[in-house]
Write a structure and sequence with these properties.
67% strand; isomerase; peroxynitrite isomerase activity
Protein backbone atom coordinates (compact mmCIF):
# COMPACT_ATOMS: atom_id res chain seq x y z
CA UNK A 1 0.00 0.00 0.00
CA UNK A 2 1.37 3.38 -0.99
CA UNK A 3 1.59 6.22 1.51
CA UNK A 4 -0.85 9.08 1.05
CA UNK A 5 0.83 11.75 -1.13
CA UNK A 6 0.32 14.41 1.58
CA UNK A 7 2.78 12.46 3.77
CA UNK A 8 5.74 13.23 1.50
CA UNK A 9 7.34 15.77 3.92
CA UNK A 10 7.44 13.18 6.75
CA UNK A 11 7.71 9.95 4.74
CA UNK A 12 11.40 9.70 5.73
CA UNK A 13 10.17 8.63 9.19
CA UNK A 14 8.43 5.47 7.93
CA UNK A 15 9.86 2.24 9.33
CA UNK A 16 11.23 0.88 12.59
CA UNK A 17 14.07 2.72 14.32
CA UNK A 18 16.20 1.47 17.23
CA UNK A 19 18.95 3.06 19.25
CA UNK A 20 20.04 4.51 22.55
CA UNK A 21 20.26 7.80 24.34
CA UNK A 22 20.56 9.61 27.64
CA UNK A 23 17.83 10.78 30.03
CA UNK A 24 18.10 13.12 32.96
CA UNK A 25 16.16 15.74 34.87
CA UNK A 26 16.52 17.58 38.18
CA UNK A 27 14.06 15.10 39.75
CA UNK A 28 16.00 11.99 38.64
CA UNK A 29 19.50 10.63 38.06
CA UNK A 30 20.88 10.64 34.53
CA UNK A 31 20.88 7.25 32.83
CA UNK A 32 21.24 5.50 29.49
CA UNK A 33 18.17 4.14 27.75
CA UNK A 34 17.32 2.06 24.70
CA UNK A 35 14.41 2.82 22.41
CA UNK A 36 12.37 1.40 19.56
CA UNK A 37 10.17 3.70 17.47
CA UNK A 38 7.81 2.63 14.67
CA UNK A 39 6.17 4.90 12.12
CA UNK A 40 3.56 3.37 9.83
CA UNK A 41 0.56 4.31 7.71
CA UNK A 42 -2.69 2.84 6.41
CA UNK A 43 -2.97 4.86 3.20
CA UNK A 44 -4.66 7.84 4.87
CA UNK A 45 -2.96 11.24 5.42
CA UNK A 46 -1.37 10.47 8.83
CA UNK A 47 1.40 8.36 10.28
CA UNK A 48 0.86 5.93 13.12
CA UNK A 49 3.48 6.14 15.87
CA UNK A 50 4.60 3.88 18.69
CA UNK A 51 7.60 4.26 20.97
CA UNK A 52 8.94 2.00 23.71
CA UNK A 53 12.00 2.62 25.86
CA UNK A 54 13.85 0.82 28.61
CA UNK A 55 16.59 1.56 31.12
CA UNK A 56 20.02 0.18 30.15
CA UNK A 57 22.76 -0.94 32.52
CA UNK A 58 26.45 -0.04 32.10
CA UNK A 59 26.91 -2.92 29.62
CA UNK A 60 23.91 -1.86 27.52
CA UNK A 61 21.57 -4.65 28.70
CA UNK A 62 17.87 -3.94 29.31
CA UNK A 63 17.11 -3.39 33.01
CA UNK A 64 13.41 -2.42 33.02
CA UNK A 65 10.78 -0.70 30.87
CA UNK A 66 10.65 3.10 30.90
CA UNK A 67 8.23 5.16 28.78
CA UNK A 68 5.69 4.05 26.20
CA UNK A 69 3.75 6.38 23.94
CA UNK A 70 1.50 5.96 20.96
CA UNK A 71 -0.18 8.35 18.60
CA UNK A 72 -0.66 9.92 15.21
CA UNK A 73 1.36 12.41 13.15
CA UNK A 74 -0.83 14.55 10.84
CA UNK A 75 0.71 16.72 8.15
CA UNK A 76 -1.09 19.98 7.38
CA UNK A 77 -0.77 22.53 4.55
CA UNK A 78 2.47 24.51 4.46
CA UNK A 79 4.49 21.65 5.99
CA UNK A 80 2.80 22.22 9.35
CA UNK A 81 2.47 19.19 11.62
CA UNK A 82 0.05 18.09 14.35
CA UNK A 83 1.01 15.21 16.64
CA UNK A 84 -1.37 13.53 19.10
CA UNK A 85 0.32 11.35 21.75
CA UNK A 86 -1.12 9.23 24.57
CA UNK A 87 0.83 7.76 27.48
CA UNK A 88 -0.27 4.93 29.80
CA UNK A 89 0.70 7.18 32.74
CA UNK A 90 -2.46 9.27 32.21
CA UNK A 91 -1.05 12.03 29.99
CA UNK A 92 -2.26 13.09 26.53
CA UNK A 93 -0.35 15.68 24.49
CA UNK A 94 -1.06 17.61 21.32
CA UNK A 95 2.03 19.02 19.63
CA UNK A 96 2.16 21.51 16.78
CA UNK A 97 5.13 22.38 14.64
CA UNK A 98 6.63 22.25 11.22
CA UNK A 99 8.80 20.20 8.91
CA UNK A 100 11.77 21.86 7.19
CA UNK A 101 13.48 19.36 4.89
CA UNK A 102 14.37 16.48 7.29
CA UNK A 103 14.05 18.55 10.47
CA UNK A 104 10.91 18.56 12.63
CA UNK A 105 10.33 20.93 15.53
CA UNK A 106 7.29 20.48 17.78
CA UNK A 107 5.95 22.15 20.91
CA UNK A 108 2.96 21.23 23.03
CA UNK A 109 -0.25 23.08 22.31
CA UNK A 110 -2.31 21.14 24.87
CA UNK A 111 -1.43 18.79 27.73
CA UNK A 112 -4.16 16.90 29.58
CA UNK A 113 -3.60 14.73 32.66
CA UNK A 114 -5.70 12.33 34.67
CA UNK A 115 -6.02 12.96 38.42
CA UNK A 116 -3.42 10.25 39.13
CA UNK A 117 -0.82 11.42 36.55
CA UNK A 118 2.38 13.15 37.61
CA UNK A 119 2.56 16.88 36.99
CA UNK A 120 3.63 17.57 33.40
CA UNK A 121 2.90 20.92 31.75
CA UNK A 122 4.84 21.28 28.48
CA UNK A 123 7.12 19.59 25.97
CA UNK A 124 9.38 20.53 23.07
CA UNK A 125 10.74 17.97 20.60
CA UNK A 126 13.31 18.33 17.86
CA UNK A 127 13.86 15.52 15.32
CA UNK A 128 16.32 15.40 12.46
CA UNK A 129 17.59 12.94 9.91
CA UNK A 130 21.39 13.24 10.11
CA UNK A 131 23.63 10.92 8.11
CA UNK A 132 20.90 8.28 7.98
CA UNK A 133 20.25 8.40 11.75
CA UNK A 134 17.11 9.79 13.35
CA UNK A 135 18.37 12.14 16.05
CA UNK A 136 16.08 13.77 18.57
CA UNK A 137 16.04 15.90 21.69
CA UNK A 138 13.13 16.21 24.10
CA UNK A 139 12.69 19.02 26.62
CA UNK A 140 9.93 18.99 29.22
CA UNK A 141 8.42 21.05 32.03
CA UNK A 142 7.28 18.78 34.87
CA UNK A 143 7.25 18.35 38.64
CA UNK A 144 7.53 22.12 39.22
CA UNK A 145 10.58 22.43 36.94
CA UNK A 146 10.79 24.82 33.94
CA UNK A 147 11.13 23.57 30.37
CA UNK A 148 14.58 21.93 30.08
CA UNK A 149 16.43 19.00 28.57
CA UNK A 150 15.11 15.54 29.47
CA UNK A 151 16.13 13.05 26.77
CA UNK A 152 18.10 12.72 23.56
CA UNK A 153 18.87 9.73 21.37
CA UNK A 154 20.26 8.48 18.09
CA UNK A 155 18.13 5.88 16.31
CA UNK A 156 19.09 3.78 13.28
CA UNK A 157 16.53 2.46 10.81
CA UNK A 158 16.38 -1.33 11.26
CA UNK A 159 13.35 -2.08 9.07
CA UNK A 160 11.41 -0.36 6.33
CA UNK A 161 7.67 0.09 6.77
CA UNK A 162 5.72 -3.12 6.25
CA UNK A 163 1.95 -2.62 5.74
CA UNK A 164 -0.27 -4.70 7.98
CA UNK A 165 -2.58 -7.22 6.32
Amino acid sequence: MDAHPDLEPIAFLLGRWEGAGVIGYPTMESANFGQEVEFGHNGKPFLTYRSRSWLLDAEGAKVRPLATETGFWRIQPGRQLEVCLAHPTGIVEIYVGEVVFHKIELQTDIVARTASAKEYTAGHRLYGLVGGSLMYAYDMAAMGQPLQSHASAELKKVADFQPED
